[in-house]
Every structure is written in structure tokens, then in C-alpha cells.
Amino acid sequence: MEALKNLQKSIVKSQIWKSIFRVGIPTDNRKRALAMLGNVVLHLHPIKVKKSGLRMSYTWCMGGTAFFLFLVETITGILLMFYYRPTVEYAYFDMVDLREAVAFGIMRELHRWGAHAMVISVWLHMFRVFMTGSYKPPREFNWNVGVILLVLTLLLSFTGYLLPWDQLAIWAITVGSNMARATPVLGHEGPGAALLQIGGTKLIHVGSDARFGLIAGRTIGNGTLIRFYVLHCVAIPFVAACLIAVHFWRVRKDGGISGPM
Amino acid sequence: MEAIKSIINFLSYPEWSFTLSLILFGLAMWSKALWTKAGGWIMLILITVFFGLSLFDPNFFVVVAKPDNVPIVMMIYIIGFFWWYAMYKAHQNDRRIEAGEPTFEKSESEDRIFTWPDLVFSEFICMVLLTVGMVLWSILLKAPLEEPANTSVAPNPSKAPWYFLGLQEMLVYFDPWMAGVVLPGLIIVGLMAIPYIDTNKKGNGYYTFKERKTEIVLFLFGFVILWSELIVIGTFLRGPNWNFFGPYEYWDINKVEPLVNVDLSEIIWIKILGVGLPGHWFVREIFGLLFTAFYFLVLPVLLIKNKFIDGFYQKMGPTRYYVGMFLFLTMMLMPIKMYLRWFLNLKYFVHIQEFFLNL
Hints:
The structure holds 2 protein chains of 2 kinds.
Chain A: H1 2-12, H2 15-20, H3 29-38, E1 48-50, H4 51-54, H5 56-59, H6 62-81, H7 91-100, H8 107-131, H9 140-162, H10 167-178, E2 197-198, E3 201-202, H11 210-215, H12 222-253
Chain B: H1 2-12, H2 14-30, H3 37-54, H4 58-64, H5 70-98, H6 104-109, E1 112-114, H7 115-140, H8 165-173, H9 176-197, H10 213-237, H11 264-272, H12 281-284, H13 286-303, H14 312-344, E2 351-352, E3 357-358
Antiparallel strand pairs in B: 2-3
Helix pairs in contact in B: 2-10, 8-9, 8-10, 9-14
């Protein structure tokens, strides 16, 4: 015990440790404040929070869970990207390899179950925010950012659904993207599509409508796979990460965790 | 046992189960006893007993035990729990408000606590527990992988990802441009509009039911009944050809359901007036168009004076009132159309195939 304590002391007092953690383990209120200010991750939080907002019975920890799962998805997703090739020839067999050839491999499981859990936790976060009336002024805008993040979560999950390139994947995406045929004005089977024509030539047809733009072709194929892959791995996470930053920033700027006025 | 099963199968058919869930939803929102610890335990035990006993049924087990359906079973419990918990806290606070005491949140919100260590450590513990939970789940349950993709063999039923099954269920009652594009768009717009429509200043930052009954009942109706229940139906009770199957029914691919759906124009021009369909679409669909115009333009005006929503117009002002009403009426189109389908076989109010415009 004594030896461990000495070891801890010598680590905490070393120049390396002090260069990373300026404050050390806080022992008084001044240091508790400095610890929050001096750390890039911790400074997302204020120095002090409402006691009511600290309770899990109030927040259900759902926003935090959603963000944590976003990080889990990012990390497992990056690891999966090392092995996965988004082409019709390889995609499925890379999945089989991940399943059969990787000892103790659970990255795909973590990624898939994490995605389901993230969808549910985002819904519950919204539900909690609604039930506590936390969308009310001055937090109207942040509720809107949250709704967009909810949509992005669903889109992330939807685009990821195609990547295993198995029967479940392509038919779920077929069902999901068929609706885009009927987009008003922009889908070739949608109301008002006939409005967009020049001298009798239809501008909106099966090779140019909203569905074509979504799946990059008349049927789901290589083009769709690449498109969904880039959306899933780069484009949507980028937008989501930006909006998460805005979301957190606005929580602070709108007066911190909500509570009775 | 078989008799009970066939009764449950029968009651699960959407016309009965949806009616039942509307009644239960109404009772639940009105009840106070349900939102107590005893009420919560009774609900939990009832659901678990029903679920546990049902697992002995092979047809039930096959559908529920699919790895991708496990999260949806969890979702039923989680949403059920948090629904109960939010209402439990709300009723507790309501009693405090009634007794003139501050709410739980109020009694503590003046108190400021240092983020280090309280918040930082509870976040850390949450992360550790979540990590353990996710790893265990991933070890116990392999992520499914089906046959390689084959564009020429469609599985039956072909289902969208589970969180979109509510939308796929809407496809039964609405045309794709509504179910797939307009209504999902309006759900998003409607959610975003909430803070701007809701002018109630009370209930900001604490759980309460009494001070914002209308808002909460409407939101829960959308979230629990229309969104979550339709997902559960779409996942567990929709089988081959998107036919409806009771929880203990075998998913028979050859099950035939006669479809004799008719449009409003056919009901009126052929069945009631007996003159046959007029040639021009505008004349043919005049009743549907009038109904739609009445529903969205006249009904909100008529409802201003309704005693149930008395005072909303005065509180909200014309713009907020109309936008809110439009979104509310759009949401109610779903149950209205479901009932008209079940009991009148109504297909479309307006059916202008000339422009693909069907409502």
C-alpha cells in the first residue's frame, strides 16, 4: 500500500504528468474550477451545475448516452473501415471475413447494436426534453438543432444498413428508397412531376428523379453502395459532429441544463 | 390455451388492437393510480407475464427471437418504463404544486454543485456501465448476416429498417408520396415547430402533467401510439405480403386477404348517387376535394369555439393556432384513414391518377 502511494506520488509529481495535467487532482474549490477550465474535454461543462440538473432522475443521462454511443460508433466504424471495401464484389465477403476470420471480433456487433441503441437513446432524450418542457424559451433553437440531429441519426443508421450488402440490406434500402419515386414534383411517380417539362420533354423520369439521385442509378448497385458509404462514413458524421458542437454550445449559452426559472 | 391464443390473435388485428390501445391510452392519461410505484410494478409484471408465456408459442418465438428484433423488444420495455417514470415524476410534482410546495427541481435548482467531481464522475460511471453493457450484448448476440444480396430474389416480407416501419405501415393507408415524403417531412417540421407553437409558459424545466396536459397528451399520442405502436406492429405483426398476422399466427405466405378498397368518388357517385363516375377528374373528385378543403380550412375555424380547446385561439393568436391545427389535423389523418379503411374499405379521399395525386 505504502509503495503504491509513493509510486502515485512520484508519477503525479513528475514533470511529464505536470506538463499534461496542470492542476493535478483537485483538492480545493479553486482547483476544482481550474480542472474544468484547463481540460479541453471537461471545459464543455460549466464549473458548477444546478443540483437538480445533476440528477439522473431528471436527465435520464440520455443525451450523454446518445453522445457516448456516437463516439462508440465513430471508433468502431473507423476500425471497420480498415477491413471493409465498398464494392459489390467485396462488400459481402468482407463481412463474412469479419465474422469468421477475426478472433473474438465484436466490432461489427458493437457497431450494429450501438446503432440501434443510439436511435432509441436519441428518441428518449427528445422525450425527456419534451416532458420537462426544456424546449421552451430560451431553448427553442437548440430543440431544433436536436430535431435535425435526430434526423441525422436515422439517416446514419439508414445509410449504414446497406453496407453489409446482404439480402436484408438491399431489400430494406429498396423499400426505403422506393418512396422517393413519389416525391412531389421531383419523383417520376410523384404528383406534379409532369409540371417540369420543356416542349414535351419530361425533365423528371426514372433516370433523373429524386430516387435516382439517392441511389445513384435506376436500381440499387455499385453506385448506391459508394454513395451510401461516403454518406455514412464521412458526410453525415461530419455534419452531425458540427451540429453536436452547436448543440452543446447552445446548452451552455442558453443557461445550462434546464431547470425551473 | 388455444382458445385464449385465438382470442388474442383476433384482438390483435389492427381494427381491434388500435381501438383498444386508444381506449387504454385515454384511460392511462386520465388515471392517477397507474403512475405510482404500485401501478408501475403491476404494468411491468403484466407485460412480462404476457411476454414470458408467449415465448412458449413457436410462432411468437420465431419472430421475437430474430437478433434484429431484440432491440425492439428492449424498446417496448424502455419506452414503457420512461413513459411511466416521466408521468410518475410529473404527478409527484403536481401534488407538491397543489400543496403549495416547490417542485423537486425547484427545491434544488438554486443549489450549485461543483462539476468536478460530481458530474464528471457520474458521467464516467455511466460510460463504464454502458461499455460493459454494449460489450456483453455484442458477445451474446451475433450481428445477423443473411444471404448475399440478390436483386432478383425479393424476401417476403421486405421490410424497411425497424425505425421506419411506422412509415411503412402508413403505406398501407396512404400513397407513397404522403407516407414516404410529405408526412415524414411534416413530422420533422412539426417537431421543429413545437417550441414556437406552444405558448404555455409553465412547465419549463420540471416534470409536470397538470400544467401542460394538452401538450403532453398530444405528444405522447404521436410518440407512443402513432410512432412506437406502429413500429411494433410493423415488426412483429406484419408478415408475408405485408399481411397482418396475430402474435401466435403462423406466417403463411399463401394467406389471402381480399382487397376491395374503393375511393370516395366511387362510394358517392356509384353507390349513393348511382350515376357512374363523371369523366372529368375535377367533377369526379369534387367531394374529396371539398372534404379536404373543409378538413384543413373550415374545421380549424369551427374548432375555435369548441369547448375542449376553448381559449387556444385567444392564447396562441391566428398564425400559431392555424399552424398548430394544421399539424394536429395532419397527424389525425392517420387514425381517421385507418378507421375509414377498416370499416368502409376507403382507399382514397381524392384519387387523381392523372397527376399521381392521391390522398
